[in-house]
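Figure 6 in text form: structure in, sequence out.
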């Protein structure tokens, strides 16, 4: 091992590589140099330049991701021998995606809408007995005189779909009249405007009802030939709703008019004359059809009445003793037989005291009393009477003369 030897220094035998300093005499003194400040614009950030790290554009990132997926698929398919299939699918998918991203958007088709829908005026009365009707149509002002536009009329019948029945050119004013034919029953109409094959929204539906059948009048009270014991009679019955009625009494020329109720019922009060009254009723329905009804009535006395008959009005003393029968008929104020009336018969003849008997009228309004005249009866005039009493109609009486002769 070699003994340690100190490293030679430049002051030793080695030659110096440092330039000799000039003599200290005459050496210039150091001076301070001012460093100019940088321009202000170099210290400012350029406008619009962000201090954040710039990102890859979105489209580039999408394409990069797609490429990575495709690359992974390529590695997988390479092992399975599907490189060709992958390449074709990748080409179609990638180029199709790029085409969709870069394609110029095309405006979508919009529906062509013509002006506002027309309006058909509502009829004053939808019911009619006429086979035709005039549709009063109001068209938009912008379509007046438009030679390229037409008014189309639709008809809808019950149970059927709407069907076009007329197509007319635009008029020179906003109001048009279109005549149409009606079908018996309900007819629903609406209209549209057609311009260049494009149709407007339809107008609201307007309805006409064709009715050609005359109405039927049914009289409930009084019945044909009835006796009415009052100055006036009330004719009541049923027919169609919304009808105008007229009743005329041919016996005195008086008339009364009225309207049926919502359910078709009616009641008309008409003055009567003594005796027979022929009353003609007519009814006009909303469509204009007319129905008729005639009824004959008899004006009664209006009071309770009774009549009395005797089996013999003239009796000879030579035939005594003899049986005699008194019969009474009681009628109510309407002239109908009255059942249940209380009757008192009294027979007064010369030579004997008065003979009385109480009775009640039957279902036919009749009651009778039979007695025997003894031989004590003398020549002269006698009298048979009947007194009728009721709780509802008051009282009445009747009498019959009985003559006794030799």
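Output sequence:
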């Amino acid at each position: 091992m070699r003994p340690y030897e100190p490293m030679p220094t430049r002051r030793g035998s080695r030659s110096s590589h440092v330039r000799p300093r000039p003599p200290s005499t005459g050496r210039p003194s150091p001076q301070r140099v001012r460093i100019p400040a940088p321009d202000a614009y170099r210290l400012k950030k350029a406008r619009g330049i962000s201090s954040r790290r710039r990102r890859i554009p979105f489209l580039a990132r999408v394409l990069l991701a797609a490429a990575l997926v495709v690359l992974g698929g390529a590695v997988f398919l390479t092992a399975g021998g599907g490189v060709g299939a992958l390449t074709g699918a990748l080409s179609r998918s990638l180029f199709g995606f790029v085409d969709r991203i870069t394609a110029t958007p095309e405006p979508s088709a919009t529906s062509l809408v013509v002006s506002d829908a027309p309006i058909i005026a509502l009829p004053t009365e939808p019911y009619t007995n006429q086979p035709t009707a005039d549709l009063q149509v109001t068209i938009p002002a912008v379509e007046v005189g438009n030679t390229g536009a037409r008014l189309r009329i639709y008809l809808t019948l019950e149970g059927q779909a709407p069907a076009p029945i007329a197509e007319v050119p635009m008029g020179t004013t906003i109001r048009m009249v279109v005549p149409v034919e009606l079908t018996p029953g309900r007819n629903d109409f609406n209209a549209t405007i057609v311009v260049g094959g494009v149709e407007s929204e339809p107008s609201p539906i307007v309805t006409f009802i064709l009715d050609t059948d005359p109405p039927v009048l049914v009289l409930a009270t009084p019945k044909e030939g009835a006796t009415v014991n009052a100055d006036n009679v009330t004719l009541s019955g049923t027919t169609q709703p919304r009808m105008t009625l007229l009743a005329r009494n041919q016996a005195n020329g008086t008339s009364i008019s009225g309207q049926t109720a919502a359910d078709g019922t009616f009641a008309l009060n008409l003055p009567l004359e003594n005796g027979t009254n022929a009353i003609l009723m007519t009814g006009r329905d909303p469509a204009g059809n007319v129905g008729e009804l005639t009824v004959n009535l008899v004006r009664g006395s209006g009071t309770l009445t009774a009549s009395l008959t005797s089996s013999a009005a003239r009796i000879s003393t030579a035939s005594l003793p003899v049986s005699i029968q008194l019969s009474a008929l009681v009628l109510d104020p309407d002239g109908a037989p009255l059942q249940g009336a209380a009757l008192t018969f009294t027979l007064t003849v010369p030579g004997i005291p008065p003979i009385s008997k109480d009775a009640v009228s039957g279902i036919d309004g009749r009651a009778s009393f039979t007695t025997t005249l003894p031989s004590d009866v003398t020549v002269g005039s006698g009298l048979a009477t009947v007194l009728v009493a009721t709780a509802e109609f008051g009282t009445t009486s009747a009498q019959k003369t009985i003559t006794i002769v030799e």
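Caption detail: The chain is about 10% helix and 40% strand.
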